Each structure stands twice: as structure tokens, then as C-alpha cells.
Amino acid sequence: MNTTATSSAEIIDLYRRYVIGNYTRYPVCLVRGEGSFVWDAEGNRYLDFFPGWGCGLLGHCPPRVVEAVREQVGQLIHVPNTWYTEPQGLLAQALSQRSDFGGRAFFCNSGTEANEAAIKLARLYGKAHSPSGTHRYKIITMLNSFHGRTLGSLSATAQPKYHAGIEPILPGFVYCPYGDLDAVAARIDNETCAVMVEPIQGEGGVNLPPPGYLQGLRELCDRHGLLLIFDEVQTGMGRTGKWYAHQHWSVTPDIVTLAKSIGGGIALGGMLARPEVAEYLKPGTHAATFGGNPVSCRAALAMIETIEADDLLERASVLAQRFRGHFERLRQRTPLIADVRILGVMIGVELTVEGAAIVQKCLERGLLINCTHQTVLRLLPALNLSDELVDEGCELLAEVILGHTV
Ligand SMILES: Cc1ncc(COP(=O)(O)O)c(C=O)c1O
Q1: Which ligand 1 atom is nearest residue 148's CA?
Q2: Comparing C-alpha atoms, which of 181, 118, 342, 350 is closest to residue 248?
Q3: pLDDT above 90: residue 248
Q4: Which residues are catalytic?
Q5: Beta strand 367-368 with 104-108: parallel, antiparallel or unpaired?
Q6: Cα–Cα 20 to 30 A to 100, which of 37, 191, 304, 336?
Q7: CA–CA separation, 270 vs 92, rounded Å?
Q8: Ligand 1 centroid – CA 5 distance (Å)
Q9: How far apart are CA 211 and CA 154, in angstroms?
Q10: Do 158 and 143 contact (CB within 8 A), yes or no?
Q11: Model confidence at 3: pLDDT above 50
Q12: Are 159 and 145 within 8 A, CB to CB?
């Protein structure tokens, strides 16, 4: 039990008076986390199957990350990118060595920023490779994608509901249905510079790529001299059982973006680009003051070390099987489950009804999950979750679903 002097109600009141209301929040104030558990100000414990909205790939406060951050903040917190620091160099090396394209890294603080960097790099590269009299700047992205909230990434996000009231969005983005290679082929013209896609759509409903899709995009890009950008902000850093999800399909991108899990909960975003592409991001073209600071890079190095030391990439497929077993059995017992989509610890359970009430009921019973696209229950649990906790959480979720009245 861990309580603070202030109650949830008092803290919620501070938010009501002083914090901009741009989020829908549960009426709970969280004060502590450890592994796959969090505690609120009243000492109630929750089993977290959605730690940190996908940032907690090792759960809350992973010990090696905590230790590395503690040590680093006592040594050097921040210096700008006019200097060299060892953690940034070592992290770039670690990410590059785990990529299969010798990627060079740029660091920032979030997923949307990583995608802004990718968009700018694609345009810089496109301009430099435009035959005379043409200008390659358009980027093809996919319906139901999610690339972030800043204006460039938002414009790449092909979901009109996120553009509402903010229009005009940036020009130069062309939308195609996810999974449809013919649509992409039909939309490429002499102004296109890149194709940008999440290998598995996350916010769009945990949508796995149809067979041959990512390979087909690679072939189209090669044929037309376009860059292939994989947004791995949600799928990257081991969530699917490979360092980069695209490695499941043996397709190599020109640019990959990362964030969420990379820093073990500390804010960090990154972009890796093939060396021949990376060279177009020259001094003066792009920057991020906090990007690649020693604290976040040490956290990320500790995160990689933990995944490798504890064999957690292998653990991802064991967990996937265990979750799948639970949800497939549940599917036999209720018509409410339409589909189960899982790769590693990226889990989507599509319902035939809206999921918000189920998420709410789970919260009341001490289980944290998410619902995206109205009907898809999304779980992004930690790689170090125990079998017992998988069973405990899934049994509770099954009870809630079976007890749900439409
Ligand atoms: C695939 C993908 N890209 C980009 C983002 C934006 O990341 P951030 O919220 O860190 O800016 C998200 C966030 O959910 C995401 O899932």
C-alpha cells in the first residue's frame, strides 16, 4: 500500500482549475508503479495491460533503467547537440547494429517529432532527386494511420477526425487504404517522394499487414525511386518479438521512426535512416534541443540491455501464444468477439460492440486496458509480464466481457 497526503479528488481539482482540458482522463490519480502494477493515491492497485500507453515495454520503473537514470542525472543531465556525449553515440550504435540497413540515428523526444524528422528528410531527399522541372515532395500514407499530433505528422495521419477544426492541414500527403497495393501504385506520380506506413497499424485497430503488402510497397518504392518509411513508434524496440517489427517480413525500409518503448518510460524519440539517405539531413536542416540527451539515451541503453539479458524478445512470442489461447477460448463462448489480432505483445481484440464500457468495468475491477477505433480492445502489456498475471488479467477481462449486456 502506498498513499500520499493528497487524495485523488484534491489532485483532480487542481487539474480542473489549472490544467488545460484537452485529455479525457479517468478519475484516478496514479502515484506509483512497479512492473505491471500501478497504485493510486488511495492505495488501490491496478494490473496494467497498457503501461504508459505503449511506453512501458518493461512495465513501470524497470530496475536497470531506474539505476541508469539515477546515475546519469548525478553526472550530466543535459547539454545541447553542439557537443558530443557518449550515451548518444552508444545508443545510435546499438540501434544501428540491431537494424538491417546500417541506420544512422537522429534523436528527438516523441513519436510525432520522429515522424516530422522523417517527413523533412524525405522531402529533402526527394527535392535532391527530382528530375529537372519536377519537384518530388508528396508522401503516400494510409487510411486509419496514426503518425502524431504536430502539424506535419497530423497531416500524414489519414484520419479526418483528427484534422477537424485545424484545417488547412499541410499539402503533400496522399491517402490510400491500408493493405491495398494497387491503390498505392495508382497514386504514385512524378511529385511523389516517399511512402510512409506503420508495419502494423496501432491506433487504427491493431491491423496486421496482409501477406505480401510490405514487400509490395518495397518493390513499388524501388521501381519509382521512392523512400519507404516505417513508423515503428508503437511496434518498435521489441514489442512484436523483433527489434523492429518489419524484420518479421524481411523488408528493409529507408527510414524507420521510434519512440514510446525506446526510453523505458523516459521521453525519447528517434529516426534511423540508411546512410545514403541520412546525409541529406545536414546542419541547419533540422534539430531538437533536448534530442538525444544523456539521461534518455542511458535509459534506452538500459532498456536494450534488459531485453537482451532477460531474453525478452523470445518471451514476446510465448506471451502472444498465451494471450491468444485465452482470447480464442473466449471467442468460442461469446459472439461479442469478432477477431483476435496479435503479434508479440501487441494485441487487438475486435468486438462486435463498442468497447468503452468494458474498459470502464475493467478499471473498476483493477485492470487497465485500452479501446481504440471504438470496437478494438488494445493491450500493449509488458514483455516481462508473468504467465500468472496474463491468466489473472485475461480471466478478469473474460468475466467482464461475458457479463456485458448490450
Ligand atoms: C504509430 C505511431 N506514430 C506516432 C505516434 C505519436 O507518438 P507521440 O505521442 O509520442 O508523439 C503514435 C502515438 O500513439 C503512434 O502510435
Answers
A1: 6
A2: 342
A3: yes
A4: 146, 231, 260
A5: unpaired
A6: 191
A7: 9
A8: 34
A9: 28
A10: yes
A11: no
A12: yes
Residue 43 Cα to ligand 1 midpoint, Å, equals 31
Residues in the chain: 406
Which residue bears the cell 538491417? 100
> Is residue 251 predicted with pLDDT exceeding 60?
yes
- Asked if the model's pLDDT at residue 2 lies above 90, the reply is no
Lowest-pLDDT range of 4-8, 192-196, 246-250, 333-337: 4-8
CA–centroid distance, residue 151 to ligand 1 (Å): 13
Q: What is the pLDDT of residues 314-332, one digit of tens each?
A: 999 999 999 999 999 999 9
Residues with CB under 6 A from ligand 1: 110-112, 115, 146-148, 198, 202-203, 231, 233-234, 259
Contacts of 96 (CB under 8 A, 6+ apart): 102, 103, 104, 105, 272
Q: Are residues 382 and 345 in contact, defined by beta-carbon separation less than 8 angstroms? A: yes
Q: 3-state DSSP call for residue 357?
A: helix
Structural element, H or E, at residue 227: strand 227-231
Over the stretch 102-118, which tens digit does the pLDDT of each residue have? 999 999 999 999 999 99
Chain segment 361-383, per-residue pLDDT in tens: 999 999 999 999 999 999 999 99
- Residue 372 has which C-alpha cell? 481504440
